[in-house]
Amino acid sequence: MTQASRTNHSGTRIPSSSRGEVSQGIEAAIRQELGMQSNRLLDTTCERVESSIERLRFRATVGDVAAATGLKLNEAEDALKALAFDSQAVLQVWHGRGQASKWLF
């Protein structure tokens, strides 16, 4: 019995069962190439932001982190984006008055 497969752009046959593995491998390669984004932050900035995220029970807005750490809004946003990339956090968006987008770690 032959296993279902497809051919990628270079002509290599990829068994159907390994498609998920291939996409995970691609994602891992991209992350490895880009490196840990939080390594580009100052150690003290990273520690302050991580501590504030923990105190906020892993749900944090840019404003929450800026207020808790004393960072400027753009610095807090850059730090959140870096940590979110490294930890595969997601952005949760609320619709409605007085609601803000929060990063979930």
What does this entry look like structurally?
- α2 (43-55) crosses α3 (62-69).
- The longest helix has 16 residues, at 19-34.
- By secondary structure, the protein is α+β, with helices and mostly antiparallel strands.
- The chain has four helices and five strands, in the order ββααβααββ.
- A three-stranded antiparallel sheet has the order 3-5-4.
What are its keywords?
105 residues, alpha+beta, Arc Repressor Mutant, subunit A, 3-stranded antiparallel sheet, two-stranded antiparallel sheet, 5 strands, globular
Strand content: 5-15%
- Supply the number of helical segments: 4
| Cα distance spanning the termini | 45 Å
CATH homologous superfamily placement of the domain at 37-104 = Winged helix-like DNA-binding domain superfamily/Winged helix DNA-binding domain
Gyration radius (Cα, Å) is 19 Å
CATH class of the domain at 37-104: Mainly Alpha
- Helices and strands, in N-to-C order? EEHHEHHEE
Structural class: alpha+beta
Mean pLDDT rating: 77
Most strands sheet: 3 strands, antiparallel
> Count of DSSP E strands?
5
Using the alpha-carbon principal axes, give the shape: globular
What is the spatial order of strands in the main beta sheet? 3-5-4
CATH topology of the domain at 37-104: Arc Repressor Mutant, subunit A
Q: Give the uncertain stretches in residue-range form.
A: none
What is the name of the CATH architecture of the domain at 37-104?
Answer: Orthogonal Bundle
Q: What helical percentage do the residues reach?
A: 40-55%
